[in-house]
Amino acid sequence: MSNTIQPAMKMPTFKANGIDGKSFDLTQRQTDLPWKMIVVYRGKHCPLCTKQLNALAKMKGDFSDAGVELAAVSADSSEQLKQHLNDLDVNFPLYSGLTLVQMSDFGLYISEPRNENETDHPFSEPAIFVLNKQNQIQILDKSNAPFSRPDLNALLSGIKFIRENDYPIRGTLAP
């Protein structure tokens, strides 16, 4: 499946570990909201990720009102995720344990740490998967650097437009 994740595809199983250490398929809904947004973040070492997750937490109600459940995942260990919680004020599920195989299978950009003070493992650069009620990939955004992320307000507006206007999935003709 390497690098074949495309818009309109049904999102394959995406397992990661919850804060309790239990494996969970992120594509499964934990609420009755029909859509789901999975945010892939670099890890606790990334201040831009911390900022993005905290900003997303402040907008959770707006995303819920638009019918979108939130979740976020990184390649951090369970212990790193627990440490990261000290800097986070999130109100949606966070997961850890994203593997190199998963990162590759989902076509994510993977980086090595710059040094041992950054982190102790390869990690994914930022990505967002927005799944519609059929678990198809409605919106896909991947970056190769921490500095390129969609504006959350613009993304929310776009999701609302798509849902209100039965707007089709775009970008399906070529990768």
TrEMBL record:
Lineage: Bacteria, Pseudomonadati, Pseudomonadota, Gammaproteobacteria, Alteromonadales
Keyword Ribonucleoprotein attributed: no
The keyword Signal is annotated on this UniProt entry: no
Residue span(s) of domain Thioredoxin: 5-164
Alphabetically ordered keywords of this record: Redox-active center
InterPro entries: AhpC/TSA (IPR000866), Thioredoxin-like_sf (IPR036249), Thioredoxin_domain (IPR013766), Tpx_Peroxidase_subfamily (IPR050455)
Family matches, as Pfam families: AhpC-TSA
Source species, domain of life: Bacteria
Species whose genome carries this gene: Pseudoalteromonas haloplanktis
Name listed for the protein in its UniProt record: Peroxiredoxin-like family protein
PANTHER family: THIOL PEROXIDASE (PTHR43110)
